[in-house]
Model the fold of this input.
Amino acid sequence: MTDAARERSLRTMVGLQARSDSHVRYARDLIADGYVGEVLVANVTVKPQAITERGTGRIWQADLANGANPLTIPGGHTIDALCFLLGEFAEVSARVATRIRHWRHTDTGEEVRVTAPDSISVAGRLVGDAEVAVQVATVPTNPTGTRIEIHGSEGSLVLTGPSAQIGPNQLVGARGSDPMTELTPPARYTPIPGDTPAGSPWNVAQAYHRIAHALRDGEPYDPDFAQALRRHRLIEAIGRSSQERRAVAL
Done:
């Protein structure tokens, strides 16, 4: 699909909506402007609720082959947000496991075997040499959501929320020995109407606003098919690293 679009000079768009989140975009600009200095290390945790009872509409996600699981959905969106902030991975070393091995089919009462992963640990190095640790896991009780910590030579930023791509997110930061304080994005980072419903519609509306401007101005849109392909290659490398028990270069 990426090749076909490129051959026809078509603009393409995909729904990695964390890239449209006000706090994520503000954090990216702060990093680009030197707020944290040289990025040294980053730490990411993604802990959504494990859903162990599902009906026909969702039970198919138990099968690894179907491609919809914590690595590809909450993990994939959050890892993409990290790459949007700091750049791409140069190398990954990963462990991918299934810790909750059965779900209950609520329509039939049967116990369904799970092969999709629910625990992913990644140690990686970014293109700029920053060291990164990522843990993604669905947990049965007390999910803690998403946390992205970025530490540099001059300061730190921490982005938290129930979900990087859905929000609502909070950004705190500090430079030098200053205490961590909340950093509120200026109004230009939230161009959508104030009465836009919170939750899932919010960042989708932000993305639609950016898409409309890209179409109007005849400019490329980020993320596009090429970016989606890059992210799928990273997810594939994480799985291959776990299977082959070795570091994988990208």
Observations:
- The chain has a mean pLDDT of 97.
- The radius of gyration is 19 Å.
